[in-house]
Amino acid sequence: ARRAIDLLRRRQRVSKYESTDPQLLETFSGAAANNEVEAVHSADEVAHLLQQLPARQREALEILKLRDLSAAQAARLSGQSAGALKVNAHRALKALRGWMQAREKP
User: Fold this and answer.
1) 3-state secondary structure string, the chain?
2) Could you list the mean pLDDT of each consecutive 10-residue stretch along the chain, which spans 106 residues?
3) How far apart are CA 98 and CA 5, in angstroms?
4) What is the pLDDT of residue 35?
5) 95: Cβ–Cβ under 8 A, 6 or more apart, which residues?
6) Tens digits of residue pLDDT in 36-60
7) Cβ(90)–Cβ(82) under 8 Å?
8) How far is it, in rounded angstroms, from Cα 25 to Cα 14?
9) What sign for the dihedral angle of Cα 65, 69, 75, 81?
10) Distance from CA of residue 35 to its chain's centroid?
């Protein structure tokens, strides 16, 4: 019951200062960030980039980010610790971001 009350209070506090606009299509606050995301043009390109990652980083990224499992669930599934999974997912995202930025530069 306390958690439900806390959730309601949080929603009221947020709604007091923020509003949503369904007309906005940007997923990030900065226009440059949207351009980086749009630089990847196809699912095949993303699959190719994922294959370039080391196995543990690719597994961590797929389990934590693509399947959207919690760190504890992912740890049980992969055999890696939750901390190792988080580090590997962070490194994978950093590598993917670097590769995408390198592809953008002429």
Assistant:
1) CHHHHHHHHHHHHHHHHCCCCCCCCCCCCCHHHHHHHHCCCCHHHHHHHHHCCCHHHHHHHHHHHHCCCCHHHHHHHHCCCHHHHHHHHHHHHHHHHHHHHHHHCC
2) 81 72 58 53 75 92 86 90 92 87 70
3) 43
4) 53
5) 52, 53, 57
6) 555 555 677 778 888 999 999 999 9
7) no
8) 21
9) positive
10) 16
> Encoding tokens for residue 5?
């009350």
Can you tell me which residue has the tokens 């995202």?
Answer: 93
Structure tokens at 15: 């709604």
83: burial class by Cβ within 10 Å (0-12, 13-18, 19+)?
exposed
Place of tokens 């599934």: 77
